[in-house]
Design brief:
The complex is a heterodimer of chains A (303) and B (372). Chain A is mostly helical and 303 residues long. Helix content of chain A is 75%, strand content 0%. Classes of the chains: A mainly alpha (303), B alpha+beta (372). The complex binds adenosine-5'-triphosphate and magnesium ion.
Chain lengths: 303, 372
């Protein structure tokens, strides 16, 4: 254990030295670029800063004109308002959050699972009509959601899954972008790797799980983010397929907060708090997976 | 360990059923190190991949041991294969790369550990076991790929140009390491290469292929000294064999080989064989290796009917030898090997002696060997 600690320490030191060396190598153009990019990213951060501060502003600050960026007197009032608000209706906001979490987890897992299972044979197994199949998936990217909402409604209704979680999840589960992205990545995985694994005695399932998937983690991370955002922000399935209020999700509720009800000024605070709640999970998911964005490893074992 | 048998094996690719491997018949002996060699696209990899189970077999049977394996999946054939580009799993450490096949076979942990460590010791990669493949040099990667192949103790090893990504020096070193590994383990091995030097130095026997057909299967010595046809003769050996077309005519001293410029007297043995085949007054092709042409005084004095005079075009010094390219009035230059102590200047008139005992005669159309 002791030796391990020392080793870890040494590694840290080495890492720091590497970093220092990298810093020393920076030349003048790079400095300009770094400063430029830093300014740009600070600018990009502004909406986020605004969103965070907004959620904690008391009502009089919320309605200030011109609006301020930074909150003066931070308060939790908006969040308690949001909770209190819904107690006057039948469904507490916690129910919407709960629904959203369930639906998002199921749908994200479903999208990633079916996406990767669909991309693998399209990429690595030649079968009759494979290209045609892939073409069809690509074409489905072109349709706007409005175009397919009526056929979707018919399908969901005939399946008898209105007002169930499945009714939320199933319409979202096919993610053509994900299939496309994963297939492109899997195309990069050299066939020899799969052949080596076959000769080593791996079944298709093992090859898929232990060789192919680990090599496309950047793509997996990316489509996890895309899938998460699609599912978490989706109000459509609530609007169309859920007549039962208890089955609706947070995005749907957020929409009603400011638009439907008469007294929308008073709800500004609750809406700001809700916006933050809507936003936070996306941020967290992104932070978890963004490292994978950068890591590309599919090629590294092959000369 | 097992014999491997190819029985009239065919491979046809694609819509137009182009034949990539044509009536391939071969028996690989138990424990043999066999090399497939041939120019690019001649079907070496295809044959190997059919044996490995990575390509379907269009016709014929392949046996491993006494079993027809045509319909076996790769994992049921109990073979291992080393690929040209190593094909290491980039996401796994060196240790896990080597252990992969054993883990899939559900061996007990301590046994896996023992086998991996032993293979690593043999290949001297013990210090890299925790690294990822991308953190290794080409040579080290190839060792890992070898390690992955040997831990499983399979029926046969298949190598598809495993050394062609390495630099020349490392290639020579790995060559001898693979051979000593083979000597130690004695597992039947098939090794594919397009490099004739590799083929000649490594193989117990060598299979020369061209356009999907086996041209000759022989020991390196016989392949070099007695190539069955012009293609093999040309492919094996560097610089290649000289080929001179000419007519066979009876002369005063015996059968002679005539060109427009000179005549050479055949040995009694060759003459007899060629007469039997009714080739008198027919055109044949004489093949002679550069080292069987000499400038030695005593040989030149020996037999005037084995001499060719020519003009020296240029010489190449390669250290232990010197190669002289002579203009003898033919389309191609005659290449002769000489001891470096002979030094001729370009443009000089020289006389070279052909060792007619070593001459080979080929049929003009079939390009097959006519003499023994
Ligand atoms: N998947 C394929 N589809 C169609 N034709 C193929 C396929 N693979 C190989 N061929 C053809 O089969 C022939 C033999 O190819 P093969 O790969 O066995 O050659 P090779 O001897 O290994 O050559 P190299 O030394 O370049 O590796 C070639 O003409 C090639 O074009
Ligand atoms: Mg090949």
């Amino acid at each position: 254990m002791k030796v391990d600690m020392r080793l870890q320490g040494k590694r840290l030191v080495y890492r720091f030295e590497d970093w220092l060396a990298a810093v020393r190598r920076i030349d003048r153009t790079q400095i300009v670029i770094i400063i430029g990019l830093t300014l740009l990213s600070a600018f990009m951060l502004l909406p986020l800063v605004y969103l965070f501060n907004h959620a904690f502003k008391p009502l009089h600050e919320l309605l200030l004109f011109p609006p301020t960026f930074i909150v003066n007197e931070p308060t939790m009032q908006n969040f308690t308002d949001l909770m209190a608000l819904t107690q006057t209706t039948f469904i507490p906001v916690s129910r919407y959050i709960f629904n959203s979490v369930i639906v998002t987890v199921l749908a994200t897992a479903g999208m990633v699972f079916t996406g990767s299972l669909c991309a693998y044979p399209l990429s690595k197994h030649k079968f009759p009509g494979g290209n045609w199949f892939f073409g069809a998936i690509m074409v489905s990217l072109l349709f706007a959601t409005e175009v397919i909402s009526i056929p979707r409604y018919v399908v969901v209704q005939s399946l008898g899954i209105m007002n169930t979680y499945l009714g939320h999840v199933l319409p979202m589960i096919a993610l053509p972008v994900g299939v496309f992205l994963l297939k492109q990545f899997m195309d990069q995985v050299p066939n020899e790797l799969l052949e080596a694994a076959k000769i080593d005695g791996a079944s298709e399932v093992k090859i898929f799980l232990r060789i192919v998937l680990p090599l496309v983690t950047p793509a997996m991370a990316t489509i996890t983010i895309i899938a998460f955002q699609t599912a978490w922000g989706n109000a459509e399935t609530s609007t169309l397929f859920m007549q039962d209020d208890a089955m609706k999700t947070l995005p749907f509720y957020m929409g009603t907060l400011t638009s439907n009800l008469a007294n929308s000024v008073a709800r500004q605070g609750a809406a700001a708090a809700g916006a933050l709640i809507m936003f936070l999970p996306s941020l967290i998911i992104f932070l978890i997976y963004q490292r994978k964005f950068i890591a590309t490893m599919a090629h590294s074992g092959i000369k | 360990m097992a014999k491997i048998l190819f029985n009239h094996v065919y491979k046809r690719y694609g819509k137009y059923k182009e034949v990539a491997v044509n009536d391939f018949n071969l028996q690989v002996e138990d424990g043999e190190f066999l090399v497939f060699v041939g120019p690019s696209g001649c079907g070496k990899s295809t044959t190997l991949r059919m044996l490995a189970g990575l390509e379907d077999i269009s016709g014929g049977e392949i046996y491993i041991g006494d079993t027809v394996v045509n319909d076996f999946s790769p994992k049921d054939r109990d073979i291992s294969m080393v690929f040209q580009n190593y094909a290491l799993y980039p996401n796994l450490s060196v240790y896990e790369n080597i252990a992969f096949g054993l883990r899939l076979r559900k061996l007990p942990k301590h046994e896996i550990d023992l086998s991996v460590k032993r293979a690593a010791r043999v290949l001297e990669i013990e210090n890299f076991l925790e690294r990822k493949p991308r953190e290794l040099s080409g040579g080290q990667r190839q060792r890992v790929a070898l390690g992955r192949a040997i831990v499983r103790k399979p029926q046969a090893f298949l190598y598809d140009e495993p050394l062609s990504n390495l630099d020349a020096r490392l290639r020579v070193q790995m060559r001898s390491e693979i051979i000593s590994l083979h000597k130690k383990m004695g597992v039947t091995s098939i090794y594919v290469t397009h490099d004739q030097v590799e083929a000649m130095t490594m193989g117990d026997r060598v299979v020369v292929m061209n356009k999907g057909v086996i041209l000759q299967v022989d020991t390196p010595e016989r392949l070099y000294n007695r190539p069955n046809n012009i293609f093999v003769a040309n492919f094996i050996g560097n610089p290649p064999m000289n080929f001179i077309p000419g007519k066979l005519q009876e002369g005063s001293g015996g059968l002679e080989f005539h060109t427009n410029r000179f005549a050479l007297l055949l040995t009694k043995q060759h003459a007899g064989q060629l007469r039997k085949q009714n080739l008198i007054d027919k055109t044949v092709i004489l093949g002679i290796r550069p080292e069987h042409i000499s400038f030695e005084e005593n040989e030149i004095g020996g037999n005037p009917q084995s001499l060719i005079s020519g003009v020296l075009e240029f010489g190449e010094f390669v250290g232990s030898d010197r190669y002289y390219h002579l203009k003898i009035g033919m389309e191609s230059l005659l290449i002769a090997r000489a001891h470096p102590k002979y030094h001729f200047n370009d443009g000089m008139k020289v006389t070279a002696a052909i060792d007619m005992e070593k001459a080979l005669f080929y049929h003009k159309e079939t390009e097959n060997l006519l003499t023994d």
